[in-house]
Design goal:
Radius of gyration of chain B: 25 Å
Shape of chain A: elongated
CATH class of the domain at 90-108 and 131-220 in chain B: Mainly Beta
Structural class of chain B: mainly beta
Number of strands of chain A: 10
Strand content of chain B: 35-45%
Radius of gyration of chain A: 26 Å
Number of helices of chain A: 7
Distance between the termini of chain B: 67 Å
Oligomer: heterodimer
Largest sheet of chain B: 5 strands, mixed
CATH architecture of the largest domain in chain A: Sandwich
Shape of chain B: globular
CATH superfamily of the largest domain in chain A: Cupredoxins -  blue copper proteins
Strand order of the largest sheet of chain A: 3-2-1-5-8
CATH topology of the largest domain in chain A: Immunoglobulin-like
């Protein structure tokens, strides 16, 4: 009894809490869009939300009406119905038509995000190496060539310039991960043994966002959205979007310092991870 | 305007869903502890019999172990550059290291002595069965670093892994001959583990902080040591006989020397590594 009352109270208080927190910076909807193609993604999202909301309301309304209208009444026998071909055709064809419409309607957005990849020569290319439970990032350094002494390597911290195309070359060392940059509407699954590539262009710097939000500690978030193991929740980081000049300064400084730091060993496996993964056999008699 | 509308729509939907969930669900049967959330890691087998090797071994003649071998491990040539480690992605760890710490791979002193070299009797002690020490070996995570960086342990002996850090670590033993272990630890948590087979320089890593690494050296006996700053080692209790002594460094490889000791001998040997 006590437990039921507690649950009921929670049931009442939870929505109150939700309503009270409506004023948070990004609301309870999608976070602020700061990518060039984010508007297209949001449009698709909102369109689908409208369709599913209407469907939800209509089906729930019909359900509630049916519950009330056909509830138990003394002396009235239940009517047995063995299906309706007409209804089944309708509720098969209508969703099929909606899905077909969505499939064609989103092709432009799909092409923009997944097919119209910008030219590397006019972009910042960053290598992203996922492992349980870290995002590793590597930059080409000021020499513009990867796998040299001046390559800055960072862990869980991604730095990119604003208003410039950024191409991420993404691989996984171990299991399936998914790189998610919510404010950029960027999400890319990372499959072991595959070379993934994706791009985005940010339209607002971290400093601008902090100023607008009045929050000096605000950072754009990096997350993993594929359950990748027991510490999956720790696989998050920060995305710093810098003005072009700041980014250039940062990259130059990091390139100079790179030689002083040990290169994280994970980068030894970068080439191997992009091809066929070989599982190292355990030695004989191992207790596995 | 559109965003506001959808925010409000989402709030209403979430409100209804949460109300329904909290109001309609029952108490759930009570015992939450039965949900399989036990954080205790799977322990390895005791390994005692394997540790002592079985077969026709005789107990280690401790009373006759009057000889000793000691010495130093040196480096010859141009010293490798000591690089720094980049601590990132964890506020606690970053606060522990206001300046980037040195990589512990090459701890070479001004006098060219090398620390963190594992020195052990590679052969010559196979005929004896050793008693497993009751004192556990401590492997501590402190300041987002493993301490010690290199340790020796007898198969069957307990290693107590402890976290003294107010952040979450993940202890992952990546040896190839012993059963792997992989578990998370929070502040002040400690867990006991055992190894059952001989294995040298087997890495223990933190999957959350990739710069954290220690090396376990598992042998079937207690005749081993790790060099500290100054490069000195000592194998103090050896019965008379012929031995092969090995020195192993995580990056510089392995060196061995054969030695014969008589009753009461105190012999000195030196290993010299180069890159």
């Amino acid at each position: 009894m006590h437990c039921t009352i507690t649950k009921m109270l929670l049931g009442v208080l939870a929505p109150v809490f939700l309503l009270a927190t409506e004023g948070r910076a990004d609301g309870w909807g999608l976070p602020e869009n700061i990518s060039t193609f984010g508007g297209e993604i949001d449009h698709q999202f909102n369109l689908i939300l409208v369709i599913t909301t209407i469907t939800f309301i209509v089906t729930m309304t019909v359900l509630v009406i049916a519950l009330i209208r056909f509830r138990h009444k003394e002396g009235k026998k239940a009517q047995h119905v063995h299906g309706s071909h007409k209804l089944e055709i309708i509720w098969t064809l209508v969703p099929a038509a909606i899905l077909l419409f969505l499939a064609f309607y989103q092709t432009k957005t799909w092409a923009l995000v997944k097919m119209d990849t910008p030219d590397k020569s006019d972009s910042v290319v960053i290598q992203v190496f996922a492992k349980q439970f870290e995002w590793n990032f590597r930059y080409a350094g000021t020499d513009g060539i990867f796998d040299t002494e001046d390559d800055p390597c960072t862990i869980k911290e991604l730095y990119v310039p604003v208003n410039k195309n950024v191409i991420l070359e993404i691989r996984s060392l171990d299991v399936i991960h998914s790189l998610f940059l919510p404010h950029l509407r960027f999400k890319q699954d990372v499959i072991p043994g595959m070379r993934m590539s994706a791009w985005f262009q940010a339209t607002k710097t971290t400093l601008q966002a902090r100023s607008e939000r009045g929050d000096e500690k605000f950072n754009y978030e990096i997350a993993c959205t594929e359950l990748c193991g027991i510490e999956h929740h720790t696989m998050k980081g920060t995305l710093s979007i810098l003005a072009q000049g700041e980014f250039d300064t940062w990259l130059a400084k990091q390139s100079v310092e790179a030689a002083q730091f040990s290169r994280p060993e994970i980068w030894d496996d970068w080439e191997r991870a992009g091809g066929e993964l070989e599982i190292e056999p355990l030695e004989e008699h191992a207790d596995h | 305007m559109t965003t506001q509308f959808f925010n409000r729509a989402l709030i209403v939907f979430l409100s209804v869903a949460l109300s329904a969930t909290f109001t309609l669900t029952g108490c759930g049967g009570g015992d939450d502890a039965g949900g399989g959330g036990d954080a205790t890691p799977t322990k390895t087998d005791d390994g005692g019999s394997k540790a002592s090797g079985g077969g026709d071994r005789t107990p280690f003649p401790a009373a006759k172990a009057t000889a000793s071998v000691s010495g130093k491990v040196m480096f010859k040539g141009d010293k490798p550059t000591v690089k720094k480690i980049r601590i990132q992605g964890d506020d606690f760890c970053m606060a522990q290291h206001p300046t980037a710490p040195n990589d512990e791979t090459y701890l070479i002193g001004d006098d060219n002595t090398i620390a963190n070299v594992f020195v052990y009797v590679k052969s010559g002690a196979d005929k004896w069965e050793f008693k497993v020490p009751s004192t556990p070996v401590m492997l501590e995570q402190k300041g987002c670093t493993y301490m010690p960086h290199v340790f020796g342990i007898m198969a069957g002996q307990t290693v107590t892994v402890k976290s003294s850090d107010e952040t979450k670590h993940n202890v992952h033993f990546k040896g190839k001959k012993n059963k792997a272990f992989n578990f998370s630890q929070v502040f002040n948590q400690s867990d006991d583990q055992k190894f059952s087979r001989e294995e040298i320089m087997a890495p223990v890593e933190c999957d959350v902080h990739s710069w954290m690494r220690s090396y376990a050296n598992i042998v079937y006996h207690t005749l081993h040591d790790v060099t500290a700053a100054g490069g000195a080692f000592e194998l103090p209790k050896l019965p008379p006989g012929d031995y092969e002594i090995a020195a192993v460094h995580e990056a510089l490889g392995t060196q061995t020397q054969k030695i014969t000791v008589a009753d009461g001998d105190s012999k000195t040997i030196e290993f010299t590594f180069s890159k």
